[in-house]
Write the structure tokens for this entry.
Amino acid sequence: MAGITSTGLGSGLDITGLVSQLVSAEATPATNRLNRREAQLQTELSSLGTLKGALSDFRSSVTLLSLSSTFTAMKATVSDSKLFSASLDSTSSVVASYDIKVTGLAKAHSLELTAPVDKAAQLGTGTLSISVGDEASVDVTIDSSNNTLEGIAKAINDTAGIGVTATILNNGDNRQLSLKSINSGAVNTIKIAVTDTGDSNNTDMLGLSQLAYDKDLGVGAGKNLIQTQSAEDASIIIDGSSTATTSTTNTFKFTTGGLAGVTLDVKSLTGIDNADTAKLDISRDNTTAINAVKSFVNKFNSLAETIKSLTSYDAKTKQAGPMQGDAGIRSVDSQLRRMLGGSIDGQSLSDMGVSVQRDGTLSFDSSKLQTALDQNRSGTMKLFTGTEASENVAAIDGLADRFSSYLDSLLSSKGPLNSRLDSLSKGIDRIDDDRETLNLRLQKLQKRYSAQFNKMDQLLGQLTATSTYLTAQFKALSSNSSS
């Protein structure tokens, strides 16, 4: 009893310590079982989460291979990017080459005063009716509060839908007014009609009417406004045509003919070595398909590595993967590899440069796919995307569709992976409940042990007291007898 530091009142025993040790002896095995079970479930939950992430990542690479646009992509190449640039949309489908000559750039109509005006000069009052091209005119009211050049410019800029911007240029006390159409193009010319209600205090500008302008009225249309830049269209000549193609902006968008889906942005009238003509080549873009297959191979290899790390056994370190022997993961791996060997019309992934290596990973020879696309694009596309149903011919699922369907079934909210993950999460929750139940049982056990030992301690106290009393009586009798 050397280790006991506190005693019971009757027995001298460390009752608190004894009860604690007995309860601990009961709790430790059960707690360890729960901890081991929870660790196992957490490991399985984490492993399945890792697998689900790898499958989702692989699924994203399959999506590109299921799109016909991946294999029908086009590209535009310009021989002189100083003259113009070109882009294509999904409607572009004709392989062709064109000589494009840039003969004009789009310009916005610009006007300015013939001479600067003193900043304090007032130009009179009235209404400016400003229109651009065929658009309806917009009225701008000019009164004594805003009839300086700066006030007129602000009133124009503050009026919505006018299609014109006004700019004031400063030169000491003088101000210059510049008006410019927001939109370029020959049709977007500025017209200004004036309703004059008062004279100016500037002897060179007698009234607001001096800001009137209409190029169709000829010389003198605006005595104090002159044209600094005419409104012009951009123009190009395609393959030496006698008819120029025009645009109100420097962008040409083609919606019909061989150039359908092509957008040209002209930049300059002269390019490299002062040339005014550049070649536009529209051709098949195999890069999109090659990158899509390359991504498919890389994502599959990443998935294969994940599955290997979860299920393999390292003989050197004698370490097993957390999901070694899991039938569900083995089934997924087996099904994916069977699908890799699928074929359509006698063509398979190996014909596209995708091969299975001895270690189970995939390799990719892009030159082989390049050849397949050049020689049999429709067959190559059919292998991945399949074909739609037609009269008397059923639809055919491509390899990408097969992979997509299988992966979607695995990853769906009610699929086997999510079902297992939900089951594991519920199992972990039940362990928390089991711990609570164990704690309640141990509390009751502690109370029972404490009550039993305290009762024993009381009994031992009574017996000790009786023993002490009897001993004293015997000693007294013995003493009397001796006398």
Summary: Residues 416-482 form the longest helix (67 residues). Residues 74-106+233-284 form one domain.
